[in-house]
Design brief:
Blueprint (H helix, E strand, L loop, with lengths): L1 H4 L2 H8 L15 E5 L2 H17 L3 E5 L13 E7 L5 H12 L3 E6 L2 H10 L3 E3 L10 H14 L7 H7 L6 H15 L6 E5 L3 H13 L6 E5 L6 H4 L8 E5 L4 H16 L3 E5 L5 H22 L8 H11 L2 H8 L4
């Protein structure tokens, strides 16, 4: 698995050449909704974060079997992302979006979602197959932005994205930082990841990587909200665990990050500050690369297979028996 993280740069450059099919002009779009789950859904979280900083179109993320009708109107583009193309929640929410008359595009490596796109002649693009979804993050992000751009939904300039992915070539640096973080997290039972709202998606990605690859539970806290609740939870806690804080590219936010680190250290809680460089795309991608590599290192040290996710497989078996009920409830079909 580690070798795929180390190939992210090459894989991501390939993604700029993925063709987009059934291209249409949607230049009147005012907002984008990303439907997706897990390792595919995090692409939406990251896209929304990046778009809020660099884009002119609002991006929302909804992770369920449906989309709220009031969220969809004639100027909404629904981007459905499922690496496998067989994620039931995403298939169902896509069907709901189509029922509402939404404009829909698809990013997948295959599966039923791709079949829907081809049958309905929806804009779609296919990504490199043979991976698990969490390994395909940067490729799916590039594919998603390229699909939107080709359909005149200009969330983020492609040229900005292209220059930003160069950060993924810093493999040696990322691996070195990942080893440091792995050593810290291995001292933990339930580590906490802290970031500002600006990097909430990255914090979530970090948590997810540790969950799936390292098989450990993880807590996420977000600045400044944590100062109104989470911070108090440490006051009388018997738990003295590890906190990884992600720095920001805004000075005043880093003052808050440093304040929280000092406070935690005063309580004898071990801390590590992940310092990133570049714009919000570069920081999000590079931080994700570090998180992925670190989570594999931890799995290796614990003697675990980072690829195996037995509990998710159990959930998917439950879903097989729910499909008819879900489609019946939302009165949709594929």
């Amino acid at each position: 698995m580690l070798e795929h993280y180390l190939e992210w740069y090459r894989y991501t450059l390939e993604a700029f050449d993925y063709p987009v099919y059934n291209v249409r002009d949607f230049s009147d779009i005012e907002k984008v909704i990303v439907a997706g789950m897990g390792g595919s859904g995090i692409v939406g979280d990251m896209l929304a974060t990046i778009a809020s900083d660099l884009g002119n179109i609002a991006v929302h993320v909804f992770k369920d079997f449906y989309l709220p009708k009031k969220l969809v109107d004639s100027k909404t583009f629904v981007l459905s992302i499922s690496y496998s193309g067989n994620t039931l929640e995403t298939i169902s929410s896509t069907a709901v979006a189509l029922e509402f008359g939404a404009k829909v595009g698809v990013v997948a490596s295959g599966g039923r979602l791709l079949d829907i796109a081809k049958t309905r002649r929806l804009p779609y693009t296919t990504v490199r197959s043979g991976l698990v979804p969490r390994l395909a993050l940067p490729m799916m992000l590039v594919a998603a932005i390229k699909l939107l751009s080709n359909c005149s939904v200009n969330v983020i300039p492609l040229q900005t994205l292209r220059s930003s992915v160069e950060i993924l070539s810093k493999i040696n640096e990322a691996s070195s930082v990942a080893r440091e973080i792995a050593s810290v997290v291995l001292q933990s039972s339930i580590p906490t990841i802290v970031a500002t709202t600006r990097y909430q998606a990255l914090a979530l990605r970090f948590k997810n990587e540790l969950n799936e690859n390292s098989k450990i539970p993880v807590k996420v806290e977000i600045i400044p909200e944590l100062f109104h609740n989470d911070i108090v939870g440490w006051e009388a806690s018997k738990l003295k665990d590890v906190v990884v804080l992600i720095d920001s590219d805004i000075d005043y936010e880093n003052i808050l990050v440093n304040f929280y680190e000092d406070y935690l250290r005063s309580l004898s809680i071990k801390t590590y500050i992940l310092k990133l460089i570049g714009n919000i795309i570069e920081r999000s991608l590079y931080g994700s690369l570090i998180a992925g590599i670190a989570s594999v290192y931890i799995a290796q040290r614990r003697g675990l297979d980072p690829l195996t996710t037995k509990s998710i497989a159990m959930y998917k078996n439950v879903l097989k028996n729910l499909e008819t009920e879900v489609f019946k409830y939302y009165n949709v079909s594929t």
